[in-house]
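Our preliminary data section would be incomplete without showing what the modeling component actually yields. Below, a chain of 148 amino acids is followed by its predicted structure, encoded as tokens that our downstream tools consume directly.
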Amino acid sequence: MDKTTKDRLLEAAKDILSNAYAPYSNCRVAAAVVDNKENIYTGVNVENASFGLTVCAERNAIAAMVKAGGKRIEAILIISNIGAIPPCGACRQVIAEFAEERVPIFLADDSGILEEWTLGGLLPRIYRPDKWLFTNSKSSGKSISSQK
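Predicted structure:
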């Protein structure tokens, strides 16, 4: 990943960080993803009083990419007002839907990029449809142990 793309991601995420809606945790998060056509999409976290309904910045950025027709994530940067925050487990799995294991994930704060990971480093043994036991739409009805 070239420095220019990293800088573009950092700038895009910094620009929207203050838009995060975090009245409960006061932890503002913004994410920027770049797709395989070098388009950048952003999102912020949106908290809810019913905390399970909170939507993370990463998923909002990915939804923006999909809405615009983007297909593949080439890199993602996550910035927060409290330091380097890696994506939660749900976000890691959503990232995996659109990214290869080698895709870099940059963690940043206002001072710049603090850490660099790959998706595979943050989510080993990624759960993907091509790894499912049953690859067709019809189940045999047999238990896994009886299919040996």
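Residues 107 and 115 are 5 Å apart (CA to CA). The chain has one domain: 3-147. Preliminary results of this kind motivate Aim 1 of the renewal.
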